[in-house]
Amino acid sequence: MAKNTANASQRRAFVNARLFDPARQLDQTGGVLIEDGIIKWIGAAVTRASLPEGTDITDVKGSLLVPGLIDMRVFTGEPGTEHRETLQTASRAAAAGGVTSIVIQPNTQPVMDDASIVDFILRRAQDTADVRVYPMAAITQDLAGEKMTEFGLLKEAGAIAVTDAVGSVRNSKLLSRAMKYAGNFNLLLVQHVEDFDLAGGVMHSGESATRLGLPGIPAAAELIALERDIRLVEMTGAPYHAAQLSCAASLDVIRHAKARGLPVSCGVSINHLTLNEHDIGAYRTFFKLSPPLRCEDDRKALVAGVADGTIDVIVSSHDPQDADTKRVPFSEAAFGAIGLETLLSAGLSLVHSEQLSLERLIEAMTDAPARLLNIQGGRLEQGVEADLAIVDMTAPWVVDADLLKSASRNTTFEARAFEGRVTETIVGGSSVYRLSNN
Amino acid sequence: MAKTSTAPRRLVKSDHLLSIADLSPAEIGALLDLADNYADSTRKGDRHGKVLKGLTQINLFFENSTRTQSSFELAGKRLGADVLNMAVSASSLAKGETVLDTAMTLNAMRPHLLIVRHQSSGAVELLAQKVSCAVINAGDGQHEHPTQALLDALTIRRHLKRLEGLTVAICGDIAHSRVARSNIALLSKMNVRLRLIAPPTLLPSGAENLGAEIFTDMREGLKGADVVMMLRLQLERMNGSFIPSAREYYRFFGLDQEKLAIANKGALVMHPGPMNRGVEIDSIVADGVQSVIREQVEMGVATRMAVLDALSRNLDTSSKARE
Q1: Which residue among A138, A384, B51, B297 is the one 20 to 30 A from B216 at the CA level?
Q2: Contact flag A212-B100 (C-beta cutoff 8 Å)
């Protein structure tokens, strides 16, 4: 992100845009002037005529202009499995999807459980990444669920939250202590909610799994873990975030917890909002996700949960896997799918089909994660760093895995026709992605 | 490949036999008719050595199975195919070779028929996407074992002269059984009244949506059954994880004379083998007059001959179309 500083000192402006920022309830035609990487002037008054001489002006012809997206669940392979994804390739994928900040999960090799690894990731990001990179460190050493990491030192090194990534902290006593301790350093504790003993399957437990002869993961695996965690939040009073929910019943648990005033929040992946267990078809391993894709009723309930604010954030849960981990029998395949580049377009499909308002969609990917993680961004207002995305709301495109910027190909949206696409992404005033017309 | 002036009729649409779900009732009927003929003619001592002459059949078994492998081997040899058995030892998998690596290697040897057993559900389907020969699923994980269901149906049909309208009870470890899944799929297609009998821990999730009546009391489930199909209980399920012990299982879910008497008079007793005598079935019943277990083995060879024959017909036309 430091690369294009030459641009940042110049004046750049977008005019004739639909300025859209749910945090400020902004939805109007106007423009943005960027100077020194900062939003200098924004509003209806910003037009070609009103801008100072020498400004590089782009007429976006009515395209949507939103705060750059913040994706709080991104896996990369750096360090450890760089052939799947580096911080650089992940950041390019992010930029192509209008994502200006990515929060890196700690299950790297070695695990991000030490300040030196956080430091390494931030330095690599500084040198190679096109978007802002925030590390989320491990809760327990080596993600083993046994001993806490040094939350204070990790935070000093630049970690913005703690999580055991794809693992759930199993020991309730340890988790309660981690909650208290993380709360004291103002670090959000993010938990993958899954009961260890009830999990162990490879897809949603039910008729489809039975017909495919695959071991299932019941909804109760999520519910039990979530309900336990919420009891611990009640006990400790520390902020808690459930990384991704997959079942309708989990929403009742969250609603109830929020109604009691507990500091609880939760997320959902774009996959769980747009796909269901039937997409697995004949053992398509790209749809093997954790938590698993569940029933259509669950999917609808999750969308409704985003709409009514029960679910706070939407993530891509971008998880690059290669042929070695995906071109194998379903039970042996790794969990996960890439998603940074398709996050917004898939989200817009919910808006176009009138399942979700544009306001809630954008809020759940901008202001909501920024506030949860206490990081900059997520807003369009004078004086903030210019992180934004220009989106042609009606541009049709068809996903072709070979053309995606990610180093991996495991998309759940191969050959899917979308309406709406990012045309330009700006980080700190610099253009990090521009859609070519051919 | 030699072209005969009267090419045999195509029996099934698909180029592979991966699951019962891919077959229509008419295709199942046609396969059973052909298998029936092979069973009769084999008994009469006919030789069929020309049907698969010049074709190569590879039996690729990632999981050991003496019975199924011998059955396929014999079926292929009776029809004149050149049969090669490949047991993929755990060692080559330990060396890092994947299912697809193995499949591509074998495919390069240009076999015509590939018979595959694998311990993972869906593995045979994955492999079929990558090879250019006909693939027959000889059992994949807990998914399907289609030739077993066909041979079971043939055995029933030969004894009871029909499938439609019969009541068939499948008893035992339904949750982990590919034999059960294939039988449920096939028998429902043929309008059989199906019953599944098992302790709740051995019933799969969503069993109530499989089109069968569910019973956890074996005696209740056996009332009015024309066929009692027992399943093998794997040893690792008996150690307290799914059921407390083999002796408790035998008491409540083992087929003995007393329980068999509850079923219809003369009800057929079946088992896909190998049996755990004294666990899921009593020896007296297994070897008794109502047992057709040994005949299932015989029908296995005839059924596999029919399947090999049917798929080779598609192979012939499709390879010509490619040329």
Answers
A1: B297
A2: no
CB–CB of A218/A205 below 8 Å?
yes
Rounded distance, CA A326 to CA A337, Å?
A: 10
A137-172 pLDDT tens trace: 999 999 999 999 999 999 999 999 999 999 999 999
**Using one digit for the tens of pLDDT, what is the confidence trace for A232-244?**
999 999 999 999 9
How buried is A201 (Cβ within 10 angstroms: 0-12 exposed, 13-18 middle, 19+ buried)? middle
Strands B113-118 and B56-61: parallel
pLDDT for A379-401, tens place per residue?
A: 999 999 999 999 999 999 999 99
Q: Tally C-beta pairs within 8 A across A and B.
A: 71
| Chain A: closest CA distance from residue B196 (Å) | 14
The single-letter code of the amino acid at A308 is: D
CB atoms within 10 A of CB A90: 34
Q: Residue B261, exposed/middle/buried by CB under 10 A (0-12, 13-18, 19+)?
A: exposed
For residue range A47-84, list pLDDT tens digits in order.
Answer: 999 999 999 999 999 999 999 999 999 999 999 999 99
**A331: chain B residues, CB-CB within 8 Å:** 120-122, 141
At residue B102, the pLDDT reads 85
Tell me, yes or no, if A331 comes closer than 8 A to chain B by beta carbon: yes
One-letter amino acid of A267: G
Residue A29 identity (one-letter amino acid):
T
pLDDT confidence band for B3 (50 / 70 / 90): very low
Does residue B249 contact residue B259 with C-beta atoms inside 8 Å?
A: no
Where does residue A437 rank: exposed (0-12), middle (13-18), buried (19+ CB within 10 A)? exposed
Q: Report chain A's mean pLDDT, rounded to a whole number.
A: 95
Which one-letter amino acid corresponds to residue A134?
Y
d(CA B117, CA B88): 10
Q: What H or E segment, with its residue span, contains residue B142?
A: none
Conformation bin of residue A95: beta by default, left when phi > 0, alpha when psi is -120 to 50: alpha
Express each pLDDT in B181-192 by its tens digit: 999 999 999 999
Alpha helices in A17-132 (DSSP H): 87-96, 115-128
Pick the range with the lowest mean pLDDT from A352-366, A396-410, B83-97, B265-279: B83-97
pLDDT, residue B240, reads 73
Supply A86's token pair: 């580096």
pLDDT digits (tens, 9 = 90+) for B305-321: 999 999 999 986 444 43
Q: What does each C-alpha distance from A136 to A159, A427, B97, B121 come to in angstroms?
A: 5, 20, 35, 36
Per-residue buried b or exposed e for B67-104, using 16+ beta carbons within 10 Å of the residue's own CB: ebbebbbbbbebbbbebeebebeeeeeeeeebbbebbe
Domains and CATH numbers, chain A: 6-65+384-392+417-437 (2.30.40.10), 68-373 (3.20.20.140)
Contact B122 A216 (CB under 8 A): no
CA-to-CA separations, B24 to A315, B153, B184, B211, in angstroms, rounded: 43, 14, 14, 17
- Residue pair A348/A64 in contact by the 8 Å Cβ criterion: no
